[in-house]
Amino acid sequence: xxxxxxxARKLVYALLLIAFVFLVVEAFSRVExxxxxxxxxxxxxxxxxxxxxxRISEPADRDEEGIRVLLLGGSVLHEDWxxxxxxxxxxxxxxxxxxxxxxxxxxxxxxxxxxxxxYRRLSRESFDLVVLYHGINELRLNNCxxxxxxxxxxxxxxxxxxxxxxxxxxxxxxxxxxxxxxRFFRLDEKLISPENYIPRDRPEEEMTAFGGEVKTAGxxxxxxxxxxxxxxxxxxxxxxxxxxxxxxxxxxxxxxEDRALDYCLHSCPVEIWGAPLHILAGLEAxxxxxxxxxxxxxxxxxxxDQQRAMPKDGEHFNDICHLSQKGSGVFVENIxxxxxxxxxxD
Length: 346
What we know:
By secondary structure, the protein is of the alpha/beta class. 44% of the residues lie in helices and 7% in strands.
């Protein structure tokens, strides 16, 4: 036996064992995230937290003469919470006599930061119209002291994980890396420094007192501006809309839970975002930002004041922001009236 041969073999065995263990852990992690996020086993990191990006249709599935519309927003635009995507598809198809693809990346709970990240990921895709609709979801992030609030929304553990990966898009597509990052921040949130985070679901009642300060105004404007800048670089028109809301007369959580208000379905109480008066103030602040951005970007964006145009009654709203079937129809008609005749010209 050559001198050192035994050590070399041990090193090879050790490396093979490490590789085997890594492959087992990686396979386990991919199975876990496939089940958790319903994404294919061989998925990139981004699909673990934005699996909806897989919805983007392949070029072979589209007619080059068709109209391709991207929806960015929260649950109001999501298929499970209303008919807006389907009605918009039908109205565009009928009005312009062309096939329409609605690429819907709106997701419940997502904020303008999620939409910025998703749109940035679509740099190689082209759209005939980008519909951007946000206003209420990030108001939950105001329910904390100013010293806890982070402009990158990192005081919500969901963003601690995503920010890490979006800041380093060149990281290897490794489920193990994602799982370790996810678990580290969950551990930090639950055991190490819970005071630096807000809850992942309903705000703590004692924290809602801090929600009156609309700390999200700056980040909200920044995220919208980033999206508009990307769209301008790509030459894609963006439809900005003030966020429409309706707080039923005499609103209280008790009346909402008793279904005693005039909403259609009584889907979500205002308190899942914060104290009602704070949410109203926050919506006004965000809407003011949207209107100002529409003004400063006049000529490059389209604009609909959905808050002014939507009827304010229970026939059109299922809660403060989710729309009934009738409301979805009016919402889409407001969009159609804002589209100039040549918006989809070749």
